[in-house]
Design goal:
By secondary structure, the protein is α/β, with parallel strands linked by helices. Strands 6-7-10-9-8-11-12 form a 7-stranded mixed β-sheet, with helices on both faces. The protein has a 5-stranded mixed β-sheet with strand order 3-2-1-4-5, sandwiched between helices. Helix 3 links the parallel strand 4 and strand 5. The radius of gyration is 19 Å and the shape is globular.
């Protein structure tokens, strides 16, 4: 049985077969998802070359615009006849040994990518208080209690957006290619250090606030900018029990939802 999984983000589409997610063999298709016609061609070519056909089912979550989701639907249906099942956020997820409750005032308003990343994080670190960081186009920092309750989180511009905004919205600042240093003495290093420190400061502040109520926690980092942030993270003993970079949290969460759906349908 072959399942396809999709994570349609703000700046890229990731996909994998269910068998490949654990091994991190995940394909990224396109960086300009607003151009749905270009995405159709790129995705169709990729799927033809890499997928073990036939495909039995397809599942995904999306924070991209509607045209992107339609493009994915069209490609998958044309190639396999299968309709993609799109998962959104939920008020609660419960399956065998995994439980997560959504503490958002309106649970359905929570981004589907954030919800599925938290599902995968909860599965990876059960019974621990968690802070889940997704450092992508936006940087999100979400907090999950040890008993499986999402208590809230924040959204900020991501690393790339910060670099781009300074280059685009100022007259003399470049698109920096500097380094993170203790005391910057040139513009490129000043921008790079400022951007990374702003991200690190946001994460540290959220960690401290959450740990003050919930004790030592596990910090999980996902997203394309996670490796750039991880070397500069340091917390005193008793605040963070462990820090890990986690690949493909969103796709892993989608796979958890797919398994739960299949189990429910089989039980009917």
């Amino acid at each position: 049985m072959t399942w396809l999984l999709f994570d349609a983000g703000n700046s890229a589409l990731k996909w994998a077969s269910a068998e490949e997610v654990a091994g991190a063999r995940v394909a990224t298709v396109g960086s300009a998802l607003a151009i749905a016609s270009g995405l159709r061609d790129a995705l169709a070519n990729d799927l033809r070359q890499r997928v073990p056909w036939p495909v039995d089912a397809a599942f995904g979550c999306s924070v991209a615009d509607a045209a992107v989701q339609r493009a994915i639907d069209d490609v998958v249906k044309d190639l396999s006849g299968v309709q993609v099942t799109w998962f959104g956020s939920q008020s609660e997820f419960s399956a065998v040994d995994l439980h997560l409750r959504n503490g958002y005032r309106n649970p359905l308003q929570l981004g589907a990518d954030r919800w599925h990343a938290m599902l995968a994080a909860r599965a990876a670190c059960p019974d621990h208080a968690l802070v889940v960081v997704n450092a992508g186009t936006a940087t999100t920092v979400d907090c999950v209690s040890a008993d499986g309750r999402f208590v809230g989180g924040v959204i900020a511009p991501g690393v790339g957006l910060m670099f781009d905004s300074l280059a685009r919205r100022t007259a003399q600042l470049p698109l920096a290619e500097g380094e993170h240093v203790a005391h910057p003495d040139n513009t490129d290093d000043a921008i790079t250090t400022g951007v990374l420190d702003s991200q690190l400061g946001l994460i540290e502040r959220r960690v401290r606030r959450f740990a003050s109520d919930h004790g030592p926690l596990q910090l999980l980092l996902g997203g394309g900018y996670a490796p750039a942030l991880r070397p500069y993270m340091a917390f005193e003993v008793g605040l963070v029990a462990a820090i890990s970079i986690e690949a493909n949290l969103v796709l892993r969460g989608v796979l958890l939802r797919a398994h739960a759906l299949a189990h429910t349908e089989a039980a009917r």
